[in-house]
Design goal:
Shape: globular
CATH architecture of the largest domain: 3-Layer(aba) Sandwich
Number of helices: 21
CATH class of the largest domain: Alpha Beta
Number of strands: 30
CATH topology of the largest domain: Rossmann fold
Structural class: alpha/beta
Length: 673
């Protein structure tokens, strides 16, 4: 099979990709607490973890981390934690929260990280469903959320907090300061010196290592049960393929509840022995990234989109000479940068120009972004626009796409060095069997396949076959080089009424390459034409209007400006021009659009906590808008419920303008038809 991204999937024989066997479990170190003991022995003085606190980087060696984990485990045991118990872990990326994961595993418990920005009601579902007895949280904010749902979670008995600020006058008996838990643990350990080692020794490869909840794009989240063997082997196989060593440096800034962070910031660190650093706060990530200069970096596409937006805003504010230099050398980079990175033949003049670009543009830019030392840079979580992907690789950053899922312990495919394609997600990782079924759905089988969905045997049976193959729900194909191409979620790929293929994510990613567009929702399945709902980027568009001397007071006012509509229309029509050149997608050009009066927000249920659009929810909530897009009206009245930062609800009303967009092939618009 050799079809381009976005091409229709035809029924036929099952297609499969070449299989490479992977590593096997070392029986002596088959759990993560055992791997920690190994690291504390063989690389005791090497840095294992860092945290920036009050502007200063603090470090812990592997030996020190092992001591901390031991004390936490003994303290939790003294408080009553027993083998088989579930412990909720809530907060930003903090060393003690990562150490708690290892401590709970050492006692045979199940850690369950929750999204730190989830509202109390979202947490209530996971706390109740997972039957969590203990919760270890970062700070007062998370304690207060637990108070809101305490009466609805009768199985929850005890809360440990890491940062005491603001909690001095909290007198609940079930609240415990982590510092005191550590002290209790050290005392317990001195009185029971063999307890911790005995508990660690009881652990086995097929024990549950962690439970991670899915994002819940189509309903309630599901608890994905992963064993030590699942995570160990997928982490090791990928690390060996990529040549990771104990000298890598990585930054842990993504949610603990997301499987990607667990693999990159915890599992691979323990398997290989490299150092993981925690930023001072979510607001300082980019500054901390520049200071740290990681060699191993992962980010989902929205992070790279935000970084690019920041770059473009700065360039718009730069002098005319700097802008011309940037545009010229970026043209050189787009032409030959990726070829040079892949060590392909490039002419002498182009190599010289690219070298000069490195001195004047690419080098300073990478240094500003904190990506100067990156050897391997992954992106995954959702499809990345080819233009965005090529931009970073043209700078000389070894960005790769991978394809994975929580149910796979992340790794399904990885792009091998020298075989990087903007429209594929690579070949199967070691130990992974991959095939595309005759209906176009991607399926896999690997050592990382999840054990089960917790308390949901029906969903487990629907997703995982008796012989271990997992349905991904994604539509894709395998090209002649064995690379997987993901077209979209299988349920989202559809057709217009004229039979044209409609792949919404592909269209949305092309739109989000523009720094002024933060989010886009494409509509078109079983309709006469494609339309889109646009979310502007407040920072990028705000900067754009300010440089033109235009004042605004709110997101809603900014989004309604005719000048902003002109800007977005120009970018949509550029996307249409690109789509017109793709035979399989030319029929899916955007005919009408509007700019939404509010940002899509996880707190309002429109996005998941990993910022994926909940299409069904959006389609129902904004049905009047969608109906107006497919009418001959040029505006639409809408009132929308919103959730404020303090949890209060409110209603925002607006009269939204609707515009036609010129299409690349005929110049026609939906209204004209």
């Amino acid at each position: 099979m050799n079809k381009g991204q976005g091409e229709d999937i035809q029924p036929g024989a099952v297609a499969s990709a070449p299989f490479r066997p992977g590593a096997s479990v070392d029986p002596e170190f088959d759990t993560f607490p055992k791997l920690l003991k190994r690291n504390a022995s063989v690389r005791s003085k090497r840095p294992a973890m860092r945290e920036k606190d009050y502007g200063i980087w603090q470090s812990w060696t592997w030996a020190e981390v092992a001591d901390e984990v031991r004390a936490i485990a003994c303290g939790l045991a003294e408080l009553g934690l027993r083998r088989g118990d579930t412990v909720a872990i809530i907060g930003d990326n903090r060393p003690r929260l990562y150490w708690t994961i290892a401590a709970v595993q050492a006692l045979g418990g199940t850690p369950v990280p929750l999204y730190q920005d989830a509202v109390a009601d979202e947490m209530k579902f996971v706390l109740d469903h997972s039957s969590a007895r203990f919760a270890v949280v970062e700070n007062q904010e998370q304690v207060d959320k637990l108070f809101q749902v305490w009466d609805d979670c009768p199985q929850l008995e005890l809360v440990v907090y890491d940062q005491p600020r603001g909690l001095r006058h909290y007198t609940q008996e079930y609240l415990h300061d982590m510092a005191k838990v550590l002290a209790v643990g050290q005392k317990f350990d001195s009185e029971n010196p063999s307890f911790y080692d005995d508990e660690v020794a009881k652990g086995a490869a097929d024990d549950t290592a962690i439970m991670l909840y899915t994002s819940g794009t189509t309903g309630q989240p599901k608890g994905v049960v992963l064993t030590h063997e699942n995570i160990y082997l997928t982490a090791l196989n990928a690390a060996q393929q990529e040549g990771l060593t104990e000298r890598e440096e990585s930054l842990a800034y993504l949610p603990l509840a997301w499987v990607g962070d667990h693999i990159f910031s915890y599992a691979q660190s323990y398997v290989i022995g490299f150092c993981v650093s925690c930023p001072e706060s979510s607001d300082t990530v980019l500054n901390d990234l520049r200071e740290l200069g990681p060699t191993y970096f992962f980010a989902p596409p929205p992070v790279f989109e935000n970084i690019l937006t920041t770059v473009m805003i700065r360039m718009e504010d730069a002098s005319a000479i700097k802008r011309k230099m940037f545009d010229y050398f970026m043209g050189v980079a787009r032409r030959v940068g990726a070829n040079i990175l892949d060590r392909e033949p490039v002419g002498f003049v182009d190599r010289l120009l690219y070298w000069l670009g490195g001195v004047f543009v690419y080098g300073p830019l990478k240094n500003t972004l904190g990506l100067s030392r990156v050897r391997i840079c992954y992106t995954a979580g959702e499809a990345i626009g080819p233009d965005l992907f090529v931009f970073y690789r043209s700078l000389g950053i070894n960005m790769k796409q991978l394809y994975g899922s929580t149910e796979a312990s992340v790794f399904i495919t990885i792009q091998p060095d020298g075989e990087i394609k903007p429209d594929t997600v690579g070949t199967p990782a070691p130990g992974v069997e991959l095939r595309v079924a005759d209906d176009g759905e991607v399926m896999f089988r690997s050592p990382g396949v999840f054990k089960e969905y917790f308390k949901n045997a029906e969903a487990t049976a629907e997703t995982k076959t008796a012989d271990g193959w997992v349905h991904t729900g994604d539509a894709g194909l395998i090209d002649e080089d064995g690379h997987l191409k993901i077209i979209d979620r299988a349920k989202d790929v559809g057709h217009l009424n004229d039979g044209s293929l409609f792949a919404p994510k592909y269209i949305e990613n092309k739109l989000k390459f523009f720094p002024h567009i933060k989010e886009a929702v494409a509509i078109g399945n079983d309709r006469d034409a494609c339309t889109v709902i646009i979310n502007i980027d407040l920072q990028a568009v705000g900067n754009w209007v300010e440089r033109r001397g235009i004042a605004y007071s709110s997101y809603q006012e900014l989004a309604a400006m005719p000048q902003v509509y002109d800007l977005i229309q120009e970018e949509i029509e550029q996307v249409n021009s690109d789509l017109a050149q793709e035979p399989n997608l030319a029929g899916s050009q955007i005919h009408r659009f509007l700019v939404l009066h509010k940002e899509l927000d996880p707190d309002d249920g429109e996005l998941t906590r990993t910022r994926k659009v909940r299409r069904g929810f959006v389609a129902e909530k904004y049905k009047p808008i969608i109906d107006a897009l497919y009418s001959d009206s040029d505006h639409c009245q809408i009132s929308t419920e919103v959730t404020f930062e303090d949890g209060r609800k409110g209603v925002v009303s607006a009269d939204l303008a609707i515009r036609d967009a010129r299409t690349g092939n005929t110049g026609a618009s939906l209204a004209a038809e």
